[in-house]
Amino acid sequence: MGTRLSDHVKERLGTFSLMAPSIAQCAVGAALAWIIAMELLGHPRPFFAPISVLICVGVGLGQRLRRVAELVVGVSLGVGIGDLLVSWIGSGAWQLALVVALAMAVAVLLNSGALFVAQAGSSAVLVATLVPGDGAGGLDRMADALTGGIVGIMAVALLPASPFTIAAKHLSGVLDALSTVLERAAEAIEKRDVELAAEALEEARNTQEAVEEFEHALETAKEITMISPLHWHRKARLARYETAAVPVDLAMRNARVLSRRTLASLGEASPPPAALAEALREVSEAALLLQLELGAGREPTLARQALLAVAARERPDGLGFSAHVIIAQLRSVVVDLLQATGMEHEAATDTLTPLDEPAAGPLATLDEPRDEAGRR
């Protein structure tokens, strides 16, 4: 129990350290947007300005530039409809319901984005409840929203989070999961342990969220390098993460198939040989090497060499059907990770030891095209 609590605390502290720059951006940007709207624009209650900063910057991962556009247009739409209707029908419960319904309906017809619709509705609520009669017009509130959006972008540019820290943290989560799946599958084969194989499969099935989080993190990191002059000269380093993104996702998908077949194989008359576990472990270690080298900002040469050694290994003789399929998926993982190190697909495939004719059937999945989900 104590270990779990300690791990949870460490995870929370790690998340806080990652999000700390965004918190600082929100705090400084909100104050700055309020001052600009009050002192320079002369608006007495410019609450849309700091709100816009918070929505623009946020403390999560996403596309800030698109959010600024949706924010400004959404707020403008909500404010415009709210001002028009409140001045006509007054304020009250049924008027509030009508204002919100119309603002969100128009927003859905124009753009189904969740942020756009939410901002139109929430802005209409504020206009219909908090601000009627305060003397501020719709154009003033729209200007406040635009001011907050611009300040938010400036905060991201001048107080940037490290794009490499963001990308490295999330890719590490994916590669750690991939390594764990392969290690547990290897141990299950060695010990003929069905429970370990089931754990490997469960671990593999729970990895999609980590993959998606990495994809969002990479988009945020790319956006920061585009916005912030402080990171313009480091785009080449981030490019390694872009190169690795799709192949690592595909490697994880193949690892899921591998773990499922490993579980099935342990119930067959001819389970996979223990020697197969060694190859699984080598690929598991190569995934960790890839994680370390990318995190250090180096060309992943050590990971590539480890993967090439596995690719060149001769296949054991006398394998059953499930063992053939496991090897086929492992070969696919090797190709995917080689691509993650920067190799082209054809070059990576050419490094594999050729298969003999008897094995061609169950191993043919390696060279088949992938479907829309990325599966071969």
TrEMBL record:
Membrane topology: Multi-pass membrane protein
Localization, UniProt: Membrane
Transmembrane segments: 12-37, 43-61, 68-90, 96-118
InterPro entries for this protein: Memb_transporter_dom
Main location class: membrane
Region (Disordered): 348-376
Biased segments, Basic and acidic residues type: 367-376
Keyword hit for Transmembrane: yes
Keywords: Coiled coil, Membrane, Transmembrane, Transmembrane helix
Integral membrane bound transporter domain sequence ranges: 33-154
Pfam family, one: FUSC_2
Coiled-coil ranges per UniProt: 197-224
Name this polypeptide is given: Uncharacterized membrane protein YgaE (UPF0421/DUF939 family)
Native source organism of the sequence: Nonomuraea angiospora
